[in-house]
Amino acid sequence: MDLVISDIEMPIMTGIELVRAIRADNHLSHLPVIALTSLTGESNKEKGLRAGFDLYEFKLDRTRLLDSVNEAFNKRA
Predict the structure, then answer these.
(1) Tens-digit pLDDT profile for residues 32-54
(2) In what order do the strands lie in the sheet with 4-6?
(3) pLDDT value at position 61?
(4) Response regulatory domain location, by residue (predicted)?
(5) What is the CA radius of gyration of the chain?
(6) What pLDDT score does 11 carry?
């Protein structure tokens, strides 16, 4: 199974733009997508989840990354 892990702040396309493009593509929309970002705060997290991320994790909390990968796969299974 495939998985996308993306930052939010990127030079050419933001993570928000990326996840929206993935969700709009019939061939990709099934993929679990996790945001891994330094942008903290509930408003940033809510914006990411509304845009289509399955999970939104902070880079500083790397211990959750493996749990998040498993959770994202389970959400899309």
Answers:
(1) 999 999 888 999 999 999 999 99
(2) 4-6, 33-37, 55-58
(3) 67
(4) 1-74
(5) 12
(6) 93
Residue with tokens 């959750």: 64
Buried b (16+ CB within 10 A) or exposed e, 26-59: eeeeebbbbbbbebeeeebbebbeebbbbbbbbe
Q: Do residues 51 and 33 touch, judged by C-beta distance below 8 A? A: no
Calculate the alpha carbon distances from 54 to 37, 51, 63, 70 in Å. 14, 9, 18, 11
Q: What confidence score (pLDDT) does residue 68 get?
A: 82
Number of domain units in the chain: 1
Q: Write the CATH number for 53.
A: 3.40.50.2300
- Residue range of the domain that includes 8: 4-76
Stated pTM of the model: 0.81
**Spans in the chain with pLDDT lower than 50:** none
